[in-house]
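Quick illustration, no need to memorize.
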Amino acid sequence: MDGLYSQLSNLIGIPTSYFASPAFNLSPSPIHINGVREMYGSLFNAMDKMETAEDAAHIFMEHMRVAFDLNVSPEEGKKKNYRANYLRLLKGWLFDSNRPEGAVMKGWAESRFGLFPLFHQEPITGVNSPAYWAYTMEKMHTRFHNNAINSQFDLLYEFCQYYLDRFGPRKRKFTLYRGTNIGDVTHQVLEKREKKEWVVRNNSLVSYTADVERADEFGDTVLEVEMPFEKVLCFPQLLPGALPKSEMEYIVLGGDCLSRVVNVSDTREKKRAR
């Protein structure tokens, strides 16, 4: 998997190998998917007039409902057809990222940012592997591509960047955690440095949490990262009332990430000391 990102294309105007590197996370620059802000300029102009984050989010969600005919009732006597909906896919991801909804979202990250998937139900070792073809069949299923679903996620990403740029924390990064087992195949440890710092290769799209205690529940080791805004697709406050907040789950773009290792036993000691 060496040189994994060096030949992969994207729609963000910088080399994938740089976007997916720890260097980008340490010193990020604004990222946009080509043409999205320009195509939906009236939406962003409308949100500029809103004074609060909640009002901006309401404008965004209402725009998505109207623009993509979401939650439209069928004509009387006709069966309601399934229409791909970004909220339904997000909920499917939060339930289990190895569902077909997760494959579609990982496929979106792959096509827009050039981030190769490492895992979907099983390890993916390359484009010619059976696992990659199984993943491709799920991500391209017609059930999820009847309503411009990639365009929906393009807009979600751009709205997230707009929201964070305007309403996010001043330091422009989130401290996030991921519980894992050392042999977990959903990521790879590329390098172990001093002071319990690892360079970890994440899946094309991956979940972290803002709650270190919640992360403890998912493995014998907790990884702490400083995640820049530019790598965030969705987080609990972004879509008020639309998604569960109990796990404080952040859906972020993958790549190679400098991570600090926090042992579960150390975290438990900190809990007892409080």
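Residues 16-273 form one domain.
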